[in-house]
Amino acid sequence: MTANEYDAIVVGAGVGGLTVAALLAYEGRKVLLVEKSNRVGGRAKTLHGREILEHGETWYRDMLGQQYCWLAKTTPSFDEIQKGKLLDGYQLDLGYHGVSLNGRGYFYDLDQIIGSGEQAGVKFAGNVNATYIDDEWYLDFHAGKLDPRIAAIVEENESAFLKFYFSAIKMGEDDFRKYEPVSLAHWCRERGIDRQHVLVEMLHAVGTLITTINDPEEISVGDIFRYFGEVINPRFKTGVARFPSGFAIGGIQQWMDSVRDRFIHFGGELLLETALQEILVGDGKVRGVRIRQKNGSIREIQSGTVVSNIPTQETFRYVERSLFPEEYVNRTEKLKSYGSIAPYFGLKNLALPQEQWKLGMKDTFVIPKGERLSHDVYMCWNIQSQSDPLCAPAGKHLLTAYAPVTEDEARNKDLMFWACEQIVEYLERRYPGFKDSIEWALFPVSWRLEGVAKDVNQAGSLKTPVRAPNVDGLFFAGDTVKGYGVAMDCACAAGLICAAEITGKNYGVR
Ligand SMILES: Cc1cc2nc3c(=O)[nH]c(=O)nc-3n(C[C@H](O)[C@H](O)[C@H](O)COP(=O)(O)OP(=O)(O)OC[C@H]3O[C@@H](n4cnc5c(N)ncnc54)[C@H](O)[C@@H]3O)c2cc1C
Q1: DSSP structure string for 216-275
Q2: Cα–Cα distance between 380 and 361 in angstroms, integer?
């Protein structure tokens, strides 16, 4: 066996892989980062409208397909969008990409260590959120302020509503784990909150915002409490965080590129358009990887540490399954993702009331369950161009949204085509004139927005551990392994946990 060429090889330059690779390089290790796509970011990348027009529909569908997404519908046809150059001047994150805590969650922890993100000049625009409950909309609880109508219901009913936001302050690791298998609906029922429709719907909307799951009977309240207890509450209290959500100005790619740049600055090597073929193992130890390079040639590279940022359900395509305990393989392969419809609308004018232009809006009842869906579908939407003027050309507007659906629903073409139409009908009902304001719309659907759904069976510490059993030197990172918080932030948390496991240092999250 030849000597190791790298201290570590990280496969996949999504949030999780970038986080681990940059931290290991920062610690002085010799690191190779291998990514099959032509840019870093994975499911969180930005495409320019112009490059979609130039490369065409097949290229766009392929870019989506590489990241667990497909195009369910376009308005008008893709040909007409291309001929009319309708996407010119737009920047499109790969579907809606709101950043939790406006970049002051786990992203911030990484940025503080390696000098990425805001430290490297990336800017975020924060927003507060609001929720439609029936035909009224209410501001979400934010910075100690309750919408006065919600406050009145809480007071009148002596409701435990605010415990949802604050009880985690006194919780520790044992409590977070105790609540992981408890559903949000169960937690509300036990406290009688379910008897007040407006309050329970508000918590439902916030729970879905954090976990991307439609059904409150499935949402793990423990995962939410951990994020409140360890990140949201302390950071609001100290003024580190000021907004629950936000967008990276110029697209989410800006943050990804800033981490990539720090990685390269620390001496890391990045190979794009290079795909992992096999993780090489001998005598129960990782030996390296076999990759297919951009020019088609196959290469074996030696290293005693390999980190896979590929969603963990796919692990056994790359490494022999018989090396691992059977129960581990079965559980890992069966971990459920949660999908989403993630439409964009290029608008010539705004049919939405001006008070909503800078808010994140949501509603838990956008598509009623009926016969076809497993639960009523929630949606969250922003006029992204009001937060980030760089994402739309002057005088135009970009509305982005996401409407969660289960993994199976997301793969059903007829169902998703119909659901996309229902979204447009909903927006027209809410905002008469909306349909006439549309210049173009794209409807990507992802069957893996959240790599492992934060449900009562598999959230937080119930996810796959970052260290593989039985194979020394094999690790995992990203939103499918142990990590907490909202999707991208969760992938970053898992990267911090994984890097700590490799270096033995403490990066603030366990
Ligand atoms: C449409 C959509 C909307 C979303 N909206 C939000 C949002 O609003 N807010 C939020 O926080 N999160 C959102 N997410 C989720 C977020 O993007 C993910 O949680 C996060 O990016 C996952 O990062 P990761 O590192 O775990 O995985 P990934 O991003 O999946 O990274 C895996 C990487 O591995 C690469 N790879 C795969 N196979 C190979 C191979 N064989 N060889 C080499 N490389 C390989 C992939 O190309 C990819 O770069 C959204 C996701 C989607 C799809």
Answers
A1: TTTBBHHHHHHHIIIIIHHHHHTTS---SEEEETT-THHHHHHHHHHHHHTT-EEE-S-E
A2: 5
pLDDT band with cut points at 50, 70 and 90 for residue 1:
very low
User: Which mutation among 452, 476, 488, 498 tests ligand 1's pocket best, with the greatest number of atoms within 8 A of CB?
Assistant: 488
Q: What distance in angstroms lies between residue 62's CA and the mean position of ligand 1's atoms?
A: 15
Q: What three-state secondary structure class fits 107?
A: helix
Is there an atom of ligand 1 within 6 Å of 44 CB? yes
pTM of structure: 0.98
Structure-token pair, residue 364: 């838990």
Going from the C-alpha of 320 to that of each of 248, 308, 312, 314, 431, the distances in angstroms are: 39, 14, 14, 12, 54
The pLDDT tens digits for 422-467 are: 999 999 999 999 999 999 999 999 999 999 999 999 998 889 999 9
Q: Distance between CA atoms of 352 and 482, rounded to whole angstroms? A: 39
Tokens 């009001």 belong to residue: 386
**Is the shortest distance between the CB of 35 and ligand 1 below 6 Å?**
yes
Does the CB atom of residue 18 touch ligand 1 within 6 A?
A: no
The residue whose CA is least distant from atom 24 of ligand 1 is: 478
DSSP 275-339: EEEEEEEETTEEEEEEEE-TTS-EEEEEBS-EEE-S-GGGGGGTS-GGGS-HHHHHHHHH---EE
103 C-beta neighbours (distance < 10 Å), count: 26
Peptide bond into 389 cis (omega under 30): no
- CATH superfamily assigned to domain 8-41+252-335+455-503: FAD/NAD(P)-binding domain (3.50.50.60)
CA of 318 relative to ligand 1 center, distance in Å: 18
- 42 CA: nearest ligand 1 atom: 49
Reply yes or no on whether the pLDDT at 2 is more than 60. no
Does position 90 have pLDDT exceeding 80, yes or no?
yes
- Domain locations in the chain as residue ranges: 8-41+252-335+455-503, 55-93+338-450, 145-237
Predicted confidence at residue 4, as pLDDT, reads 83
Does the structure show a pLDDT above 80 at 395? yes
Please give the distance, rounded to the nearest whole angstrom, from the Cα atom of residue 255 to the centre of ligand 1. Answer: 14
Tens of pLDDT, residue by residue over 479-506, are 999 999 999 999 999 999 999 999 999 9
Verify whether ligand 1 is closer than 6 Å to residue 276 (CB atom): yes
The confidence score (pLDDT) of residue 67 equals 97
Question: Which residue is closest in CA terms to ligand 1's atom 6?
Answer: 97
> pLDDT tens digit string along 168-226?
999 999 999 999 999 999 999 999 999 999 999 999 999 999 999 999 999 999 999 99
Rg (CA), the chain: 22
